[in-house]
Design goal:
Blueprint: H1 3-21, H2 24-43, H3 51-82, H4 85-91, H5 99-107, H6 111-121, H7 127-134, H8 138-156
Helix pairs in contact: 1-2, 1-3, 2-3, 7-8
Amino acid sequence: MTLDHVFDQYLRLIWYIVRQHVEESSVRDVVQDICLAVCEQYDKGMLPDNPGAWIRSIVRNKIADFYRNRSSQQRKHDIIAESKPADRLIDDPLSTLSCNEIRSFLQKMQPLDYTIVIQRYVAKASIREIAAEIGTQPDEVSNRLSYLKKLMKKRFH
């Protein structure tokens, strides 16, 4: 069975199931995720004997992923909304500054500190990812971030 045949036969079912479980504004995104997962699994040679059950399984898992991600994002949003501005400064010290203030501060940094700040607050990389990228321990990155936050707080507040 070809991938075209799978989509010809099951795409309407995918749209129908997703529309039953996801609000209209997100249906297209979820269907795209499902189609991508089907293509990836097909490319890996994972087309089973019963493609209908396989498709329904992917649909069920992607809908669950959608709600899991939405729930996680909502919790993060609620935490940020409830936090005080000072708390947000600790989490993201760049959030309350103007572009000129940020640019001026970043231009004066050492290259390693610049990399750490950009990776953490612009690229949203984890401390472990940053440590791996610059070839150091996560504790060192955490210590540098703590020091840099204090510098920013002292300079701008």
